[in-house]
Design brief:
Helices cover 75% and strands 1% of the residues. With 331 residues, the protein is mainly α. The protein has a two-stranded antiparallel ribbon. 46% of the residues are buried. The chain is built from 14 helices and two strands; from the N terminus they run αααααβαααααααβαα. It is globular.
């Protein structure tokens, strides 16, 4: 597949599947099963499916060091991020507004990516980020005026999610990928499963409710596992590796529009005139930011790293000198 076509496929898949997570959270909050317990089962099942795939395709276990690094990434980009999002939705913050609040993540990502990763926004890109942030603010203000609005502090939880996923993204791209995508996804799913399992046990008094066979529960699990876990985070990892953190983060601004369409069709959620204006500003600002992002190509960095001559340490140089006989020692 041509380079640009593959990049476009990854970008579209990421936006669509990432949006499904907010809808899945809304589905989960409507069930009798505690939402934290459902998400613990979600990640356990997703991890099992990916583990079976890795066993069949890879054949050999990844190194423990690489697994620990990817689990640290997953604890931030999956566990910490979704914990704030799901609790916010459960408290009454609408799915579309939760998506918009978390769309503030590109601002923090752009600020960190410049000094740490060599990716930066041009001035017009920063203007786009600020316009998108203004749009997010208008949508939150509109949602807080609804009759059944969540408490004001619930809107702070998605901001904590923003910090968590940004730190995890920076950690993920600071080094060249050392594991296949499926193995990295498995490690991150296991980390998220552990976080939600602990949260569910703490909320349930040390007990984890068993999964049920009720159709709404099975539908929510299928949605969350296939679209949100395997699709959303699979495309997320692929996007970070191929497009970089700044462009991936800018794509997050496009997810609220998709989330709004799903939420309106499935749950009857509607934004008022102020919220719609904010949605338009967020989308336009994101497009401007995407156009004026200047970044280093992750795939080119990987190729350059493989082509770079190896630097020998002092110990290796000394050992090599002892192994090579001097001209005077040969007979």
């Amino acid at each position: 597949m041509p380079h640009q076509a593959l990049s476009l496929l990854i970008a579209v898949g990421f936006v669509v599947c990432w949006s499904s997570g907010f809808v899945g959270g809304r589905l989960a909050s409507a069930l009798d099963t505690p939402v934290l317990a459902l998400f613990a089962w979600r990640f356990l099942l997703a991890a099992l499916l990916v583990a079976l795939w890795c066993r069949w395709r890879l054949g050999e276990a990844p190194r423990a060091r690489d697994m620990r690094r990817e689990m640290a990434v997953g604890s931030l980009t999956m566990g910490g991020y979704l914990l704030g999002v799901i609790v916010a939705i459960d408290l009454g913050v609408s799915a579309s507004v939760t998506a918009l609040v978390t769309a503030l993540q590109p601002l923090l990502a752009a600020a960190l990516a410049g000094p740490l990763l060599g990716e930066r926004l041009l001035p017009r890109g920063w203007l786009g980020m600020l316009v998108a942030t203004l749009g997010v603010t208008l949508c939150v203000a509109d949602d807080m005026q609804q009759p059944l609005a969540a408490p004001w502090w619930a809107y702070l939880l998605p901001l904590l999610s923003v910090i968590s996923v940004t730190l995890g993204s920076v950690l993920a791209v600071r080094q060249a990928p050392a594991m296949p995508l499926s193995a990295a996804l498995l490690a991150q799913l296991l980390a998220a499963a552990g976080i939600f399992l602990l949260a569910a046990l703490a909320a349930g008094g040390g007990k984890l409710p068993a999964p049920t066979r009720e159709p709404p529960f099975l539908a929510a699990i299928a949605w969350l596992v296939v679209l949100s876990s395997l699709g959303g985070y699979g495309f997320f990892i692929a996007s970070l590796r191929r497009l970089g953190i700044t462009l991936t983060s800018a794509l997050v601004h496009l997810t609220p529009g998709v989330t709004l369409l799903w939420a309106a069709a499935m749950f009857g959620e509607r934004l008022g005139p102020t919220g719609i204006a904010g949605m338009v500003l967020a989308g336009g600002g994101a497009g401007l930011a995407i156009r004026y992002v200047r970044r280093s190509d992750p795939t080119r960095r990987d190729r350059d790293a493989r082509r770079a001559p190896r630097t020998w340490s002092a110990d290796e140089t000394q050992a090599a000198a002892h192994r090579v006989p001097s001209p005077g020692s040969q007979s």
